[in-house]
Each structure stands twice: as structure tokens, then as C-alpha cells.
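hi! just following up on the protien thing from before. the input was this:
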Amino acid sequence: MPSHLKVLIAGSGPAGLTAAVYTARAQLGPVLIEGEPSSTSDQPGGQLMLTTEVENYPGFPDGILGPELMTSMRAQAARFGADIVTAKVTRVELEKSPFAVWTGDPDAPSPTYETEALIIATGAQALMLGVPGEDRLLGYGVSTCATCDGFFFRDQHIAVVGGGDSALEEALFLTRFASKVTVVHRRDRLRASRIMQERAFANPDIEFAWTQQVVEVLGDGKVTGVRVRHAATGAYDELPVTGVFVAIGHVPNTAVFRGQVALDDQGYVATHDGSRTNVDGVFACGDVQDQTYRQAVTAAGSGCMAAIDAERWLEARGS
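and the predicted 3d structure came back as:
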């Protein structure tokens, strides 16, 4: 028989763990499914587990390591009684309450859990280049978030890879710190909106490496450059940079919820009136429903919102 819960939380980044703290303190006995270390998405602790120094999370004037911050959040949720399970949500059925949630074998005849309220906090993952050196140097010069890491590259030459609005937004932001920003784009024209292109072209600290594709991130312990291939000639070249910001897009971890809850055009969970979804009793928080801010502090704040929304929803129905 499946375990029957008042609240189940899927995902264990800042949003999910904050929701766990609040629902546990409200005596709702939450179970948090934190993901699996082997997963390529929805891993325990979320994207902060791949971040070294975090300097913009309130309360840590000297900064804190991303994994250390997430370990502390996890311990806090457990302290208040949240049951944290290392597993991955593999199937859900949200047509009626209680909702059915599977971990492990999605074809098992019975769900692992039945829950009155479900909080989706499975996050999003940055699309990566998939080239040698990228994984090894992630957090050591390779980044997917200029707002998070730009400060560490003051007076340095850095590269931004991409050609859309996100890439140009990153590049423009990084000129506050870097001495020079080179936008590496594999085509001879940008996909970004006209206004973003005009701003980037007008900025003297941004230059463009056209029709070039990054094929390797160079460095031993930290980034020292990127190897690029010129599309026209096939020749290889090296760009001496100390930072590489990959800005080719994000993908929300919503595959398991597709067809069960409303998603927007980009695949993010659609929310309204706080954290509510189109399914009564299902809430969403963090990067899985936020493609604008994508910060640890905003994710944690939305986790608080989802927990309070779920608590009030349960109270209103007498649960």
C-alpha cells in the first residue's frame, strides 16, 4: 500500500528545502523526494551543488560554498521533521486527489506515495556545450549565471557563449566587472532581439567572435582559455580567457509532469495567484516555474510561498 501524506515535495534545491522547512514547522509531515546523485537533472541540492562560492545569498557576509549552503538547508529541514528521501519521481497521476506519485519503477502497479498536496520544485538545468573540460571546470571558471558569478571576474577577459537574448544580457551585465567580454557565436548573426543587439554592439567592452564554435575549455584547475573552431575554414584557434559563461538556454525539469499539469510555451510549470497551478492542490516553486530570475534567494522565497499556499489549501478543506 502506498504511504498517504498531507504534503509531498518533489525537488531539493533552495525552493524545495525551504518548502520542507515551512511545511514541517506547520506539522504537515512532509516527505521531500530529493532526486538521485546519478541523475542528469533534478539532482539533490539542485544547481547550487555545482557552484563554488555563493556571495549574494543574504546572511553570509563572507560568502558560502554552494554545497555547504545546501547541506545546511537540508539539515534544517530534517531538524523540523521533514522526511528526506533520496529517490527520483518517475511518474505522477494528478487527475484526482489524493495524487499518486511513483519513485523507482514507473510501471509498478501501485504508487509509492499518495499525497493530498504536491509541491513541484524540480528546478531547471542550464543547457551545456558538452565539450571537453566543461564539466571538469564547472565552478572553476565555467559558469551559467553572470548574476551569481560575475563579481569573481573583475578586470579579467571572459567569454560568453551564445547568440540569443540571454547571452547578450549576460555579456552586458559582465561588462560591469570584466575588462573585456568576447561573445562567441557559431553563426554570423545573432538570434537576440534588435534592442539587445544594439546595446551590445554599442558597448565598447564587448567584442564578437563570429562563426566560431567552442570545442574545448582549457585549463588545469581553473579556466585559462577556450579552443574554438572556425566554421568557414575548419581551422582551430585559442581564445585566452579566464572565464566562460555558457548562455545557450535552460530547460525546466518538467518531463514527468507533462500532460498532468499546465506548462507554458517554454515547458515551465504555469503558476498563478502565488504558487498555484491549474490543478487544485498542486503548487510549484523555484526555477521549475521561474525563467526570469533563477536565483537561490528567489527560489527560496517562492518555496516559502508554496508551503504557505499548500498549508492554507489543506486547512480550507479540513485536512
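Residues 89 and 146 are 31 Å apart (CA to CA).
The chain is about 20% helix and 25% strand.
cheers
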